[in-house]
């Protein structure tokens, strides 16, 4: 009887460890209107029984995305992206070449806004969705949903969504 119980525990443990932390953002790109509210969705699963820490991070575009919308993208960026189809001149650059800041963090029921976002209607709802009350021009960019659990270190702990704010 004890051997059977030990085997079930071992099987359960191995199954939980094999899956690990999985973070997914269902919409990879979202277009929203200036001064309107939006929700950036983030789902995660974990084998941990301890509460997760949710963090949303903002990264600005590497180049101005509005120029492309108006047909004024640079010929250098166009030629580079044609040579490497995986590379996006607006999204793929070093963090040192763009603005990176924490939007909000949630641990348990406590939500903390990053310095730049204090005073704005921003919160984390459900398990990990970022809700922004009124979009501003500077909100266009990449948003990363990052999940941290103390005892589930395997798997994919982040995913991103591109938000483009239009008038």
UniProtKB/TrEMBL annotation:
According to UniProt, the name of this protein is: Immunoglobulin like domain containing receptor 2
Q: Which InterPro entries does the UniProt entry name for this protein?
A: Ig-like_dom_sf, Ig-like_domain-LISCH7, Ig-like_fold, Ig_sub
What Gene3D superfamilies does the annotation carry? Immunoglobulins (2.60.40.10)
What keyword terms does UniProt attach to this protein? Signal
Q: SUPFAM superfamilies of this UniProt entry? A: Immunoglobulin
Which GO BP terms, alphabetically? pancreas development
Q: What are the top taxonomic ranks of the organism? A: Eukaryota, Metazoa, Chordata, Craniata, Vertebrata
Q: Give the signal peptide, or none.
A: 1-20
Q: Which residues form the Immunoglobulin domain?
A: 27-166
Report which superkingdom the organism of origin falls in.
Eukaryota
**Cellular-component GO terms for this entry:** membrane
The gene name reads ILDR2
